Amino acid sequence: MHDEHGVDEERLAYLADLKSQRRGRVEEYAKEFGADFFPDARPWQVKADLALPCATQNEISQAEARTMIDDGIKAVSEGANMPTEQEGIHDFVKAAFSLPPAKPPTPVAWQYPDWR
Predict the structure, then answer these.
(1) Is 50 helix (H, G, I), strand (E, B) or coil?
(2) Sign of CA dihedral 15, 21, 27, 33
(3) Which segments of the chain are extended strands (E)?
(4) What angle, rounded to 10 degrees, do the helices at 26-33 and 9-20 form?
């Protein structure tokens, strides 16, 4: 899913309720807010500031990681168990941008004040 308008407080609250309370699908968010949804593809070819892979292991290949870097991605925050292939992680690290760890052991807040 890609929301070109970004995710503000209202959209984040909707998504949190959708996933945690109603056990809904991200496709419902896309319909509600007019976001792009990719039912049979991965969205990593879309230019964005932030990527949130949250589904499976090895979801981002090395080629997709390089495309994201070339397209100017600012950060990847992994919400799954190692969603980026090892080679892609190396490329992200070489690009010297933020790559918080997949599933940190304690609650962590990541701040990007320069994005405002």
Answers:
(1) strand
(2) negative
(3) 50-51, 75-76
(4) 150
Token pair 């997949």: residue: 102
Spatial contact of 51 and 69, defined as CB atoms under 8 Å apart: no
Q: Is the CATH number of domain 52-116 3.40.50.300?
A: no
For the stretch 93-99, contacts whose Cβ atoms lie closer than 8 Å and that sit 24 or more positions apart, written own/partner, are 95/69, 97/73, 98/74, 99/75
For the record, the structure tokens of 78 come out as 């992994």
Return all residues near 21 (Cβ < 8 A) that are at least 6 apart: none
**Token representation of residue 111:** 């701040």
Locate the domains of the chain by residue range: 1-39, 52-116
Predicted TM-score (pTM) of this structure: 0.69
| pLDDT 10s digits, 43-63 | 888 898 888 887 667 788 999
What's the confidence (pLDDT) of residue 36? 92
What is the token pair recorded at 29? 């968010």
* Nearest C-alpha neighbor of 15 from the set 4, 27, 79, 116: 27
